[in-house]
């Protein structure tokens, strides 16, 4: 159901209810006004009748029946349109009346509402309830008396004789039909119902027209949003301010959602490209070692009586091929992880502890496999930064392993110096990591190529991905890496600069990761992104 229809229906129902509620209040006020007017008339009549009622009681007490009859006639005639009943203490009887109740007859008895005291009716005439209708003991203020489905407004006045203490006493009751003014009240009721019936459709139509106009910007926004198709067009939601807060807020929310969708779609495409590239690159790079291993296995199978020395050479080739396979697969997996890592994987890392742990691991490795290699470490403790710790550790490990493998001259063990120190300007502090070796060095024109995937020197046992991992992780951490000549003697220096904010927990710069990361999916030989290196 449309919003405009809902609003029209709600208003079409709410308006009659509001009219009826207001009408009920108005009816109550009108009824009170009618009763007030009726009560004022009763008081006016009672004030006129009171002296006559007092005179009638005095005359009856004096034993003058003719004069009493005249005064009774005067009293009843003065009642005009109200009922009059004059009671005094006494006894008698009542007879059935023509209104279905018991008629009030002068000289007969009547009772009060509690039924405990009888009064004698001295005079009675005009519209009034039956004699059996219970009356209150006194009603100095008008009250409603109900009898046999009829309502009466009743007012009582105490009547004293010539002598307030010894003279005759009685009660003068004045009655008025409760139906007085009912015509006005009924007319008001009818008018309220008519207004409610008219207000329902008018309120619905008016509300529908207002809601239709008010929701027009919302419908325009719906049409624009519904016409967007990210698969066929790069167009995005274009919204001009409508000066309606809710619509403008909704448009901004939609724009934010669509922008996040675009980012996630791009990341998904990159993830798919990374998966495809992983498969293609793995098959391309693993084909040669697998074929070599297959050849060696064929040799072993076809020549079971192979010379032991030749057999040992073949087995060494198999072992070397298997190690190369494992190294390539591990490096490819690490590149894929770097391409897909998200900002929530970053946290505060103590770079000093990380470098010290990496150097200790490499020392244990070279002690078993490269005896004679010497590592020295100089670092400043307590250098913290916001980083992805596994990726940063991979970068440091690969720098150290590269120095161990390529950082020595023929016949001499490698001498590797590792240093970590603070650097940069006070407004832009850095952590500077340097790895020096005394190997043959790298020609300046070749230094950029070493970061490309699968770039290897002739005879290198590595996968050609170690320094690519270094470049990837440095770029991911908004740092720079460059290759320099060793300051003293021959060899080469790898120098890495990483941002080191004053408060790493509050740093957001390294959390704004590059949206486009294709270190793994680039075509082999073309190289990855433009490296953030320094000249």
TrEMBL record:
Location within or outside the cell: Cell membrane
Domain HAMP: 212-266
Residue span, Histidine kinase domain: 281-502
Keywords carried by this UniProt record: Kinase, Membrane, Phosphoprotein, Transferase, Transmembrane, Transmembrane helix, Two-component regulatory system
Transmembrane stretches, start-end: 192-211
Main location: membrane
EC numbers: 2.7.13.3
PROSITE patterns: HAMP, HIS_KIN
Enzyme class: transferase
Catalyzed reactions per annotation: ATP + protein L-histidine = ADP + protein N-phospho-L-histidine
One Pfam family per UniProt: HATPase_c
GO molecular function, one term: kinase activity
Listed name of the protein: histidine kinase
């Amino acid at each position: 159901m449309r919003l405009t229809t809902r609003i029209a229906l709600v208003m079409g129902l709410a308006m009659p209810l509001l009219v009826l509620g207001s009408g009920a209040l108005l009816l109550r006020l009108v009824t009170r006004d009618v009763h007030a007017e009726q009560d004022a008339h009763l008081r006016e009549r009672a004030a006129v009748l009171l002296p006559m009622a007092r005179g009638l009681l005095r005359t009856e007490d004096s034993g003058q029946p003719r004069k009493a009859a005249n005064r009774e006639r005067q009293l009843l005639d003065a009642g005009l349109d109200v009922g009059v009943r004059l009671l005094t203490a006494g006894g008698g009887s009542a007879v059935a009346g023509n209104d279905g109740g018991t008629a009030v007859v002068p000289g007969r008895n009547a009772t009060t509402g509690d039924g405990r005291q009888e009064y004698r009716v001295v005079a009675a005439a005009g519209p009034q309830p039956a004699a059996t209708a219970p009356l209150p003991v006194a009603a100095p203020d008008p009250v409603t008396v109900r009898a046999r489905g009829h309502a009466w407004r009743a007012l009582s006045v105490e009547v004293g004789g010539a002598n307030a203490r010894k003279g005759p006493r009685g009660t003068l009751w004045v009655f008025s039909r409760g139906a007085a003014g009912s015509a006005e009240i009924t007319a008001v009721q009818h008018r309220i119902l008519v207004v409610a019936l008219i207000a329902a459709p008018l309120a619905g139509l008016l509300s529908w027209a207002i809601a239709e106009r008010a929701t027009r910007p919302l419908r325009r926004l719906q049409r624009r949003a519904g016409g967007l198709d990210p698969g066929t067009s790069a167009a995005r939601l274009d919204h001009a301010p409508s000066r309606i807060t809710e619509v403008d807020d909704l448009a901004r929310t939609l724009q934010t959602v669509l922008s996040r969708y675009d980012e996630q779609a791009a990341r998904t495409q990159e993830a798919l490209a990374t998966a495809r590239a992983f498969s293609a690159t793995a098959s391309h790079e693993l084909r040669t070692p697998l074929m070599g291993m297959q050849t060696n296995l064929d040799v072993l199978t076809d020549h079971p009586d192979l010379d032991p020395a030749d057999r040992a050479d073949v087995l060494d080739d198999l072992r070397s091929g298997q190690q190369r396979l494992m190294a390539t697969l591990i490096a490819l997996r690490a590149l894929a992880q770097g391409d897909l890592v998200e900002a929530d994987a970053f946290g505060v890392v103590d770079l000093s502890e990380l470098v010290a742990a990496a150097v200790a691991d490499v020392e244990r490795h070279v002690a078993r496999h490269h005896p004679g290699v010497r590592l020295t470490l100089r670092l400043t403790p307590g250098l913290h930064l916001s980083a992805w710790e596994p990726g940063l550790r991979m970068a440091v490990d690969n720098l150290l392993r590269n120095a161990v493998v390529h950082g020595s001259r023929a016949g001499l063990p490698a001498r590797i110096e590792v240093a970590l120190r603070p650097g940069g300007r006070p407004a832009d502090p850095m952590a500077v990591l340097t790895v020096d070796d005394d190997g043959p060095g790298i020609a300046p024109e070749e230094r950029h190529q070493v970061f490309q995937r699968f770039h290897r020197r002739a005879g290198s046992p590595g996968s050609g991905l170690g320094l690519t991992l270094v470049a990837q992780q440095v770029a991911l951490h908004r740092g720079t890496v460059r290759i320099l000549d060793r300051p003293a003697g021959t060899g080469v220096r790898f120098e890495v600069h990483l941002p080191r904010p004053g408060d790493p927990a509050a740093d957001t710069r390294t959390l704004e990761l590059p949206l486009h990361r294709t270190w793994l999916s680039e075509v082999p030989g073309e190289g990855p992104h433009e490296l953030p290196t320094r000249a």
